[in-house]
């Protein structure tokens, strides 16, 4: 059960966990050691988000552009994702966390697709925090694929297009738009992540490399979010009228 701030109950936090490779290189270790450390951080941050009362959490695990990395590193990343899903699912069931994996699946190995299906099925009854992991994901490709199918719909609206996006990416139609994006590693860009859903998201950039990011950092980012005015293009209330 969540024990966090009730104000965060419906909050959708999206995280771009950057800096695993640099973290390892700084220590003279192979990059895959950084990815393994990063996977452990993901486990901690998922629990921390649930404890803080976050309603929805989306994590960027593997970009479609990451296929350009060396094959050995790609294989290691997918192996960590599979391990993360298989080991995480029983824990998430206990915590009431429901998992969905978004992105393409046709290019993934059979063993990884099986792990995704198993974890999603095991956690399907979860009524606590909703967790999404983006694997082989590209927002621009998702929007393009949705647009090629959108002509079949009878309703032309942002809501209808959002529904089509959810269909093509396995996203789950009940996920709200992103409220807060956190990116670690010092970089300040979205990198083709949830572009449609992040239209009015607040952005918080951390200089910490992902393996060094923890529950206190997540809490600080959420507190900063709650301090920011949310106008959505409108005037502040005191100036309206």
Structure description:
The chain is of the alpha/beta class and 241 residues long. The protein has one domain (6-138, 178-226): 3-Layer(aba) Sandwich (Undecaprenyl pyrophosphate synthetase). Helices cover 43% and strands 14% of the residues. The chain has helices at 20-26, 31-51, 71-95, 110-122, 139-150, 158-169, 215-227, and strands at residues 12-16, 56-63, 98-102, 130-137, 180-183, 202-205. Helix 1 (20-26) crosses helix 2.
Keywords:
241 residues; 43% helix; 14% strand; alpha/beta; six-stranded parallel sheet
How is the secondary structure organized here?
Layout: E1 12-16, H1 20-26, H2 31-51, E2 56-63, H3 71-95, E3 98-102, H4 110-122, E4 130-137, H5 139-150, H6 158-169, E5 180-183, E6 202-205, H7 215-227
Parallel strand pairs: 1-2, 1-5, 2-4, 3-4, 5-6
Count of separate structural domains: 1
> Which CATH architecture would you pick?
3-Layer(aba) Sandwich
Shape: globular
What's the level 1 CATH class?
A: Alpha Beta
* Helical fraction: 40-55%
Report the C-alpha radius of gyration, rounded. 18 Å
Span between termini: 43 Å
| Tally of helical segments | 7
Pairing-aware structural class of the strands and helices? alpha/beta
The residue ranges in which pLDDT falls below 50 over 5 or more consecutive positions are none
Q: Tell me about the largest β-sheet.
A: 6 strands, parallel
Fraction of residues in β-strands: 5-15%
Order of helices and strands: EHHEHEHEHHEEH
What do we call the CATH topology?
A: Undecaprenyl pyrophosphate synthetase
For the biggest β-sheet, the strand order reads: 3-4-2-1-5-6
Based on DSSP secondary structure assignment, what is the total number of beta strands?
6
The name of the CATH superfamily reads Decaprenyl diphosphate synthase-like
Average pLDDT figure: 90
